[in-house]
Amino acid sequence: MPARIPDLPTNQSPAAAAPGPDPVSGDDLAVLALEQMDQGVMLVDADLRVRVINPRLYEMFDVPMGYMPGDDYARMVHYLARRGEYGPGDPDLLAAGHLERTLRADPPLYEHRRPDGRVLEVRTRRTSAGGFVRTYSDVTERRRAEDDLATQRHMLRLTLENMGQGIVLLDRDLRYIAWNRHALDILGVSEEVMCSKPALSDIVHHQISTGLVSMPAGAPDFGDDLDAKTKYLMDRLGRPEREFVYARPQGDGRFIEVRVVPLPDGGQVRTFTDITDRVIADEALRQSREILTGVIDAIPALIDVKDRDGTVRLTNRFYRETYGPAAAPPPGSATDRATALDRLVVDSSQGVPFHEDRAPDGEGAMRDWLTTKMPLTDEGGEVTHIVTVALDITARKRAEAELRDAQASLIQAEKLSSLAQLVAGVAHEVNTPIGVTLTAISHLGEEVGRIRALFEENRIRRSDFQDFLDVAWESTRMILSNVERATGLIQSFKQVASDQASGERRPFDLAAYVDEVLLSLRPRLRRTRVTVDLDIPTGLIVDGYPGSFAQVLSNLIINALVHAYDEGEAGRILLSAREQPAGWIEMHYADDGKGIPASIRTRIFEPFFTTKRGMGASGLGLSICANIMTGTMRGSIALEEDSEKGTRFVLRFPVRLEG
């Protein structure tokens, strides 16, 4: 439907028409103009009759050309209201409201948002005849662009306001034209002051006068001349040629980092970052490093840090005092073993436990080191450095060697002491049969003298000779019995003494040998009321070191006589043994004495540990037992923890030693 044009006045003469062939009438020109317009146009007269609607308006409202319910504007408004053009609600009420505003031409300019989201800018102008002309411009894209721009500005403003930094923008005259609230806080000025667009020099002057900014170190002494101070700072920091960063302390105790970025038009962007926490953290880190360096230097051990290539990067004072100020290799680092350990740390990202090294120090003297290696890794877990810590154990190794020599000497002394006790036992035990033998020989000698006198006087009688024969027979039998007893005792003592002195390996019957050991201890046991009982089956043959085993039994029993029982106190010691499991002997020692206090149970096998040092105890008895059982006998000795009364030990050793 072409645009409809109202009747125009006809008082214009034909001569006034434009010259030329086939002139175009004014109505035709108006129709062409309306059809080519990008705006929608509607002309309504005073009776609300629609006189003109151009095609663009039909397109804007998505209505087919010419499809309008007659020329009545009110009917057209109701039609659009029912289509939802004016939003949700009662169409009649919406249409009535729209008509009322239209008649008042209020507002003369407004935006109409269609249901499809497009935005139309509507302008209404009253005509002199009482009607109105309404134009519709599609401003959807413009409004979208404006909204996007407004959103971007809003987001930018939010970003600036939520930045942890203060930021300002200065124009070519170095006047403040934009800022955020953090900048106001750091600069120490109010929003009202900044809105007056002060110059940079004005703010610097204000900061100096309020003490918020101090003059830098090395600045001349300007006294109270604020202008001179301001000029000094402006000359140095006002217009840098390129991006410039500096830090300054604030009068309120904060540290501010200022970054100045010159702009092509002569303006500047300045950012202010509160670095107080970073400065404090850096200072704390510096102090921590000083403390850590002091602690590391105070440690009496070699400490060095190497990179992955083996280059020494850090050493402590003990290291430098040992090897000199130059970065010398750590102990053993020149050896293939140390290099391999460094490579192992790098490849496995695991440390190397403490191990012993031997290497010369800076003066060439050999030292013993207890060394460990640890990795330092980055955030990704890759090894970046290797830390080596080496403790000087030269003195300890020397002391250990001296201690081993002393222990060997003391063990030998213990053996000699045992032999001395054995000799005393031999003398005591053999004394009785020898005394009986001497008595019998003396008595027999007297009888021989008597019978000889009777024979020489020829007064011997048959009864006298018979009495002599009886005495001689009894004396001979007594002498023979006691001599055999003494011989057996001497042989037994000789075997035990030989075993303890020689330390040779041989098979022995466990039950019989324990009995012989107890026989050597009989003199010591007779002075007490303690008895020793055995529960060991005969025929249990052990291939081992009987002398060492005898020393273990002797030490256990003597230790019990010294510590487990008071003088004159009765007691019982039980020694039992069985082969279990096959190939191993398990022997139990048990007494009913005082027992061992829980506080010292873990120390009883330590060398020189004793609770009766002032009473002649050396503290080596149980230590020697442990060394013999774990070393010579290749077994073990342990204190039973669950003994309710007295003391119980468990000895385990093989029936036959291998090798």
From TrEMBL:
Organism (species): Azospirillum palustre
Catalytic activity: ATP + protein L-histidine = ADP + protein N-phospho-L-histidine
Ranges where the PAC domain occurs: 350-405
Pfam families according to UniProt: HATPase_c, PAS_4, PAS_7
Domain of life the protein comes from: Bacteria
This protein's name: histidine kinase
Domain Histidine kinase: 425-657
Sorted UniProt keywords: Kinase, Phosphoprotein, Transferase
Database matches in SMART domains: HATPase_c, PAS
Domain PAS stretches: 152-205
Extent of the signal sequence: none
